[in-house]
């Protein structure tokens, strides 16, 4: 993990020293600064604009932790903001505007701290400009990781759990279950027989695709009241069609099932930024092209990558989301094929480029021959 600068605020100086020792032992690469008083804390943030992570205790006598993090959006919005709390009730998490990127429960464990620090280090390494990072940090409409998603992740990561246990959790959420069944019966995923069994649907999709579906639905649920229902549903349908098409094209080009599932997840989750922008009042017709945060990449791509890394998705997936508009942006050999698939699908489906035109463009740039050859023979569709 790359070195990151962490600033912690807690009124209890004794506890603060203990927390620092514990975190330093878990993550020796981190530079951890601690403060028990507000004014030195604010001064440090003003003088160090590129602090990577701010952690504030929830209950303090002179200032509430949520108020601290809200003021951070004005004083220095660059850092990721985390709240340290023993109260993980829904009431704590429902405050609007949402100024918390992540919660650390007290007592925290090594896995939670490591995951947060790795996410922050990856955000530092991903190709966000400083201005973009500051602007993203100033946004206060990002959702915090959903309880259902966390529960599913525990099951997925447990070698002793099975598809039936995972399906039982999904079945408790009717809207998500319906979406999982819809995708499991999609013609573009290539299954010959329809199914109404949630167990079979989960097995068909696999855990990577399932987690992407649950993530997209969980995030979308946060914006049901702020995005018109028709617009909201249209974007979800477009995202689902895009993801299914990308997976099918990857299969036609001979990519492994694992790569196909990763591409499905990347394509589906790339639309999260669109929902967030719509909630902030952006025009639906210009979401693909708007690039106010930085020149290379549409705003929705940057927002999607930022949120998805905070939600625990791999940095590589986030990098693919950020760079899928540029045919030559990814040079890592193990990511090239996936990046090319996403680029091609984006050109045909969203920029209305003719497959033959895209094929010539890709061939001229010496992109993977098997992928170039597959462009014109694939049955592209536009939702």
TrEMBL record:
Coiled-coil positions: none
Pfam families: HDOD, Response_reg
Residues that bear 4-aspartylphosphate: 57
SUPFAM superfamilies named among the record's database cross-references: CheY-like, HD-domain/PDEase-like
InterPro entries from the UniProt entry: CheY-like_superfamily, HDOD, RNase_Y/CdgJ, Sig_transdc_resp-reg_put, Sig_transdc_resp-reg_receiver
Domain (HDOD) ranges: 142-327
Domain of life of the source: Bacteria
Gene3D superfamilies in UniProt: 3.40.50.2300, Hypothetical protein af1432
Source species taxonomy: Bacteria, Pseudomonadati, Pseudomonadota, Gammaproteobacteria, Alkalimonas
Occurrences of domain Response regulatory (ranges): 5-121
Protein name: HDOD domain-containing protein
